[in-house]
Amino acid sequence: MEEYQEKLIAVREFLREKSPQQMSISAISRSMGMNRGTVSKYLEILRINGQVTMVYYGKSKLYTVSDRIPAVSLFDYTTDIIIIMDANARIMTANKSFFSKYNRLNERTLVGSNIFHLGIPIFSESSVHKNINRMIRGDKFLHEMQYIDERNNQIYSIKFIPTVSLDGNKNCMIALRDITDQIHTEEALSISDEKLRTIFKKVPSGILFFNESGNIINANSASLRMLGVDNYQDLMKTNLFDLFCRKEKIINALFDGDIGKIEFICDFERLKREQIMPTSRSGIAYFEASFTHISSETGFREYATIIMDVTAERMAKKELKFNESRYHSFFNYTCTGVLIYQPVDGGNDFMIKDVNQALEIILQVKKEEIIGKKLFVAFPDLPISSVRLALNRVNSTEIPEVVPPLQYIKNETSPWLTHFIFKLPTGEIASFMMDIAKDLREEVTYRKTLCTEND
């Protein structure tokens, strides 16, 4: 055995002297005066132990001393628990992680002990025990297993690795790794992934993933519904930038880093006409989108966008704006005076909210002088009791009323005004007023004429 060990070391030192030269088995055999087969066996043992390296040159094998640190010297720097044993299941060595885990053992009592006699549950477990014996015998065995320690619910990965010692004997290495946290993390990630998939499928907003070229790489079902597309393939063939009008607005926002909320328009008739994408929708649609950059392993910058169809909202606002414009045109330019007020002080008075131009002319007042004032404070000459009663009736019953003619200011030039009062949906009260002074004069003139003719 000593002679064997000496020759093994001699081969290694010979290669060290020749380093960095690479030498074939035949060249080493001739130079050292040894049998070629013996040299080949020694070189294979040294290679398995990481002390020499081998490369192919055609069909020849070239060897040189290894620059790597021997694996055994690295064992103490790994958190894995490592044990090396011989063919009789006797411990040859173990690393620091082993002694740290099983602190009741020490190297003096450990070396030479049978691995199955250590009293460590993981090695006494039936399936582990059988697998170690199969590896020792050279039978088929599992290279990796998982083991759950029932005492503390710790989960271990066990690797079984056949090795060869420097003297050529077959050894076995067992590496244990505590993977409890890893398993728990993977389970948590799996749950998170499932939650994200559920959100992706169920959220009513459209979600699109695309790269910097605008190529759509994924989309949820809500996106398909919003865009009127039946299947994913039709959408995947479409460039996002071609879907919307003013695509440069989106491109510039992305490349300038301004990837917040953007509103854009989609003309579905254009998409059909230019055969950009088959869609069942028609007309114009308005979308509101939020963009964000996402990490990618493809080498391309990728983005995600959440889109919401705000067409109904935009059309409602457009209609409202049109109605407001129509209302203001009617309000401001009608020849009838309009006064809008709201009950205050429990119906004892009414705050003036708005008046139109016709009323300013009829009453000879300026809008800014009376808006925000109380009706009976701004016009104390009104018949307060009767006006208050009429306004409160309309406010409570919401039934319009016509008020007999009255004057806002009691003098000879102040007009007599009749009122049509009604309640607005806003809770305010509106009063249309008409100057009947001309009608009264014509009535008086008519009656005087009638009397003269009778005389």
Number of helices: 20
Strand content: 25-35%
Task: Spell out the CATH superfamily of the largest domain.
Answer: PAS domain
Total DSSP E strands: 18
Strand order of the largest sheet: 5-4-8-7-6
Oligomer: single chain
Distance between the termini: 164 Å
Identify the CATH architecture of the largest domain: 2-Layer Sandwich
| Unreliable spans | none
Sheet bearing the most strands, described? 5 strands, antiparallel
- Work out the helicity level: 40-55%
List the domain count as a whole number: 4
Structure class: alpha+beta
Structure, explained:
- The longest helix is centred in the middle third of the chain and has 23 residues, at about 180-200.
- The protein has a five-stranded antiparallel β-sheet, sandwiched between helices. The protein has a five-stranded antiparallel β-sheet with strand order 10-9-13-12-11.
- The mean pLDDT is about 80.
- The protein has four domains: about 1-65, Orthogonal Bundle (Arc Repressor Mutant, subunit A), CATH 1.10.10; about 70-180, 2-Layer Sandwich (Beta-Lactamase); about 205-315, PAS domain (Beta-Lactamase, 2-Layer Sandwich); about 335-440, Beta-Lactamase (2-Layer Sandwich).
- About 40% of the residues lie in helices and about 25% in strands.
- The protein has 20 helices and 18 strands.
- It has helices at about 1-20, 25-30, 35-50, 70-75, 95-100, 105-110, 120-125, 125-135, 180-200, 220-225, 230-235, 240-245, 245-255, 270-275, 310-335, 355-365, 365-370, 375-380, 385-395, 435-455, and strands spanning about 25, 50-55, 60-65, 80-85, 90-95, 145-150, 155-165, 170-180, 205-210, 215-220, 260-265, 285-295, 300-310, 335-345, 350-355, 400-405, 415-425, 430-435.
- The termini are far apart.
- With about 450 residues, it is α+β, with helices and mostly antiparallel strands.
- The chain is elongated, with a radius of gyration of 48 Å.
- Strand 14 (about 335-345) and strand 15 (about 350-355) form a beta hairpin.
- It comes from Methanogenium organophilum.
- This is PAS domain S-box protein.
- InterPro entries: ArsR-like_HTH, PAS, PAS-like_dom_sf, PAS_4, WH-like_DNA-bd_sf, WH_DNA-bd_sf.
